[in-house]
C-alpha cells in the first residue's frame, strides 16, 4: 500500500497553490505570528473512522516549512480511529503550521472519508468470496490519493485509467457492431492489455466469454440473474457486479458467488472524516 511520491508532490503543489496565490502568501499568519515563533500541533479525529493520508499531510507541512517541520504519526494509514484520538503531532514554525492547516486537512479528511466508507463495504463482505472494488468515478486530480484510500480501507483498485485495461461498454459494442467485433478490434491493436466486457444479459455474458474476454462487468443485474451468469461462465472468467449496489443488498450479491462488487460511491460519494488541527496551549 504505497503512494507515488511524484503524484503526492504534484497534488500538494497544486493544492497549496489554490490557497497561497501568486506570489504565495498567507496574509493572516504573516500579520499575526512572529516569524521565529515555533509551536506544536495535534491532528485529532473528530469522529470514528479509518485514517488514510498521513504521509500526504506530512508532505504539506514539509512544503510550507521548507522541510523544517517535524511530523510524528501516532497511528498508521488503514487503522481504525475513535473520536478524540491524536493521529499525528507536528512541530515547526507556527506560520508554516497554520498555512498548511487547511490544505493538509482537506486532503487527509477526504482520504480518510474514502477509507472509512470502503471499510464498511469490506466489513460487510468479510467471510465471502467477493471483494469491493473502486471505479474511475474519482475527483479530478485526486485519483491516485482516492484509490490509495480505498486500499487503506480494505478495498481493491480496478483500472487506474483508460490505458491499463480495455473496458468494452455498451457504446463500444454499438459502435463496433457487436461484443465479438469490439473484442477482436481491441485484441488486434492491444494484444497484451486485459479486456473486460460490460454485459447485461446471460446471452451477452456467454458471447463475451466465447470471444475471449478476461473478465465481465455484470451491470445492473438482479441477484437471481447474476447467479445464473456465475453458474454458466464463472469458472472461465472473473465476474464483477456493479450498478445500484448498497450495503443493504451486499449480502445477496455476495452470495451469488461473484468475485467483485464495484462501487463508484467509494470515491464519488464518501463524506469526509472530520479531523482538526489543534495547537497545543
UniProtKB/TrEMBL annotation:
Pathway as given in its UniProt record: Cofactor biosynthesis; NAD(+) biosynthesis; nicotinate D-ribonucleotide from quinolinate: step 1/1
A Pfam cross-reference name: QRPTase_C
EC number: 2.4.2.19
GO biological process: one example: NAD+ biosynthetic process
Molecular function GO terms recorded: nicotinate-nucleotide diphosphorylase (carboxylating) activity
Record keywords: Glycosyltransferase, Pyridine nucleotide biosynthesis, Transferase
Occurrences of domain Quinolinate phosphoribosyl transferase N-terminal (ranges): 26-112
Catalytic activity: nicotinate beta-D-ribonucleotide + CO2 + diphosphate = quinolinate + 5-phospho-alpha-D-ribose 1-diphosphate + 2 H(+)
CDD domains documented for this protein: QPRTase
GO cellular component terms, A-Z: cytoplasm
Domain Quinolinate phosphoribosyl transferase C-terminal: 114-278
NCBIfam families tied to this protein: nadC
Function, in words: Involved in the catabolism of quinolinic acid (QA).
Family stated for the protein in its record: Belongs to the NadC/ModD family.
Quaternary structure note: Hexamer formed by 3 homodimers.
Protein name: Nicotinate-nucleotide pyrophosphorylase [carboxylating]
Record organism: Paractinoplanes ferrugineus
Amino acid at each position: 500500500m504505497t503512494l507515488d511520491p511524484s503524484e503526492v508532490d504534484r497534488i500538494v503543489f497544486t493544492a497549496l497553490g489554490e490557497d497561497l496565490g501568486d506570489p504565495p502568501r498567507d496574509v493572516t499568519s504573516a500579520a499575526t505570528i512572529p516569524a521565529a515563533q515555533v509551536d506544536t500541533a495535534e491532528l485529532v479525529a473528530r469522529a470514528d473512522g479509518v485514517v488514510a493520508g498521513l504521509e500526504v499531510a506530512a508532505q504539506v507541512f514539509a512544503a510550507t516549512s521548507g522541510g523544517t517541520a517535524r511530523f510524528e504519526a501516532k497511528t498508521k494509514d488503514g487503522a481504525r480511529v475513535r473520536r478524540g484520538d491524536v493521529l499525528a503531532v507536528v512541530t515547526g514554525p507556527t506560520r508554516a503550521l497554520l498555512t498548511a492547516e487547511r490544505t493538509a486537512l482537506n486532503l487527509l479528511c477526504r482520504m480518510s472519508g474514502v477509507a472509512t466508507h470502503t471499510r464498511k463495504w469490506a466489513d460487510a463482505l468479510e467471510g465471502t468470496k467477493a471483494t469491493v472494488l473502486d471505479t474511475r468515478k474519482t475527483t479530478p486530480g485526486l485519483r491516485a490519493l482516492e484509490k490509495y484510500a480505498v486500499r487503506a480501507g480494505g478495498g481493491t483498485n480496478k483500472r487506474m485509467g483508460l490505458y491499463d485495461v480495455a473496458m468494452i461498454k455498451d457504446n463500444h459494442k454499438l459502435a463496433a457492431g457487436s461484443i465479438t467485433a469490439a473484442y477482436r478490434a481491441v485484441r488486434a491493436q492491444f494484444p497484451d492489455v486485459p479486456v473486460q466486457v460490460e454485459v447485461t444479459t446471460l446471452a451477452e455474458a456467454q458471447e463475451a466469454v466465447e470471444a475471449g474476454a478476461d473478465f465481465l462487468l455484470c451491470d445492473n443485474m438482479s441477484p437471481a440473474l447474476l447467479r445464473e451468469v456465475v453458474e454458466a461462465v464463472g469458472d472461465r472468467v472473473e465476474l464483477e457486479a456493479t450498478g445500484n449496489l448498497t450495503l443493504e443488498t451486499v449480502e445477496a450479491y455476495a452470495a451469488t458467488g461473484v468475485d467483485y462488487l464495484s462501487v463508484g460511491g467509494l470515491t464519488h460519494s464518501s463524506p469526509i472524516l472530520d479531523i482538526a488541527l489543534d495547537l497545543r496551549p
